[in-house]
Write a structure and sequence with these properties.
By secondary structure, this protein is mainly α. It has helices at 12-24, 29-56. InterPro entries: Ribbon_hlx_hlx (IPR010985).
Length: 60
């Protein structure tokens, strides 16, 4: 799997908060943001799978 560049503008306050969160985990800001996006994507896919399973078994 290759990688692609994503560039975005954020204000200084948000960047400082991201730096703080990343530093607490011993990560770069880039790694922290990527892991956060991956986690959010997983959460959405997991919820969709649970919803489909509940529909299949008639639990909803």
């Amino acid at each position: 799997m290759g990688s692609t560049v994503l560039s975005l503008r954020i204000d200084g306050e948000l960047l400082d908060r991201l730096r703080h969160h990343a530093a607490r985990r011993g990560m770069s800001v880039q790694d922290y943001v990527v892991r956060t996006l991956i986690r959010d994507d997983f959460d959405e896919r997991f919820k969709a799978a649970v919803d489909e399973t509940e529909k299949f078994y008639g639990l909803t």
